[in-house]
Design goal:
alpha/beta, 96 residues, 3 helices, Rossmann fold, globular, 4 strands
């Protein structure tokens, strides 16, 4: 696998998903990890080519049955500790 493609998702693909994308990019930089991070919306995210989807817990229920990649639910987009833990867990699982 090359550089992972991480999709951050919100209702319309331009609000909280952008904030989540920026948080994830900051975490990647902090831990010297490489990934392509882009935003998507809940209506089309399952058709976008990616390796993982980071999405709010509320919206994850709308896509979990049709997503073909792991869906990682975030309870609080403002909680950097939660986001960092889930990003690092995803990367640790890639090594296995």
């Amino acid at each position: 696998m090359g550089v992972p493609k991480i999709q951050t998702v919100c209702g319309f693909g331009c609000g909280s998903s952008l904030m989540l994308r920026m948080n994830i990019e900051s975490i990647l930089k902090k831990h010297n990890l490489k990934a392509e991070v882009f935003c998507g919306d809940v209506g089309t995210c399952c058709s976008n080519q990616c390796d993982v989807i980071f999405i709010s817990k509320q919206l994850s229920e709308r896509i979990s049955d049709r997503a073909k990649v792991p869906v990682i639910s975030i309870d609080d987009f403002m909680n950097n500790v939660e986001i960092e833990g889930k990003v690092l867990e995803y990367f640790n699982n890639l090594k296995k």
